[in-house]
Amino acid sequence: MDNETPTVRVGLVSSRRIALYVSAGIVGFAVGFIAIIAPFGWNRLFTALAIGLLLGGAIAGWLLSQDGIILDDDAVSVRTPWRRSRIAWDRISGIHARRIVTTDSDGAEKWLFELQFAGSTETLALLEFPAVTSSWANPYEHRTREQLKAVFDIARAKGLPAAVPAAIAQPLKEHWHLEAPTY
């Protein structure tokens, strides 16, 4: 096994930024639609719809793909479409996990994994997902498990401890076969 630290892309996109990206996609749709309808008329309705959907989807997809957190050997990179910043690993003191209850009608429990900054109460949210109650059963859960595994691998490589409560650590170990790094 080599000593290279894995690279993982994680991060939560706020609902406000998702709304912004969807709005930009809608504007892209409108521009594409009008660009076909204006010169060719309503006879090209389906072509205009297709071009508008492709353009709007491409814009929204590109914006969403530019948003995230990259953990690699050098640093933690926080990206949005309009800003990039890098946080050195020596500013990170560990990983913190906690349970949160959503305000949805079902009140489902979710787990939040964050990077904790050294000498600060500031955190950076990495992953938020529904509480684990069984082995992964779909692609979303499998991807989340792989992301969490990669986060734990990076934490081990960097010597960062993970503060994971027993109520979270036990199901992770039992169902997903993941153990948080401890030091």
Automatic annotation (TrEMBL):
Native organism taxonomy: Bacteria, Bacillati, Actinomycetota, Actinomycetes, Mycobacteriales
Protein name stated in the entry: PH domain-containing protein
Annotated TM spans: 18-38, 45-64
Record keywords: Membrane, Transmembrane, Transmembrane helix
